[in-house]
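Ligand-bound model needed. BIS(adenosine)-5'-pentaphosphate.
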Amino acid sequence: MRLILLGPPGAGKGTQAQRLVQRHGIVQLSTGDMLRAAVKAGTPIGRKAEAIMARGELVPDEVVVAIVSDRIDQPDARKGFILDGFPRTVAQAEALERMLAEKTLRLHAVVELKVDEGALLKRLASRIAEMKARGEPVRPDDNPEALKTRLDVYRRQTAPLVAFYGKKGLLKSVDGMAPIEAVAAAVDEALSPEIAVRGG
Ligand code: AP5
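Prediction:
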């Protein structure tokens, strides 16, 4: 099964992706995680992305498209994957379509996590607390100023993907405000036709 998880910062994309990984044995491809790993490793992509990410802006389309294309070719992605945080612009979505067509792969569903923006700051605060409790460094973009930019970028550049995938008949919208387990159940329910056909 090949999926996209769509939603604003803090909507729960990473949380639900991890759950889908455990339940269906497919891999999570998080462009945010890949870019943070590149920043940590000090690669040329990481050096280019670091300040952009800290401000809450988007890394250039061609950079993330290349990363995703390479990652999809890895053997562990053969059984299926969940794209978490990609695509984020219509140009990225169009590039993904071309990329999958070239690889003769099909996208099965796009799950939108619908949330109230007011709740996101609270979720961010809880993630900061969780990361501190685990002794991990807090993300440089997890602060009110960068979150404002991230939300603004989502509204302007990413939210149009809801209509983009709606028109293609791929969109499944789920209430992301419910408790984590209830959201997970709603995601499974939304994907049940795909799961029935593909067995996971
Ligand atoms: P990325 O890493 O993708 O971050 P994001 O989209 O801002 O999303 P988050 O990771 O903040 O949130 P999430 O939706 O995964 O929520 P989570 O599950 O963690 O991107 C970071 C940056 O990288 C971008 O700003 C950009 O610069 C760059 N980038 C990445 N992809 C790019 C692309 N394609 N193009 C260009 N640039 C790109 O949950 C958050 C918190 O809420 C957690 O504490 C969790 O426990 C809690 N929570 C989750 N669900 C619930 C629930 N149902 N109820 C209560 N709490 C919940």
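The beta strands are 2-6, 27-30, 81-84, 109-114, 171-175.
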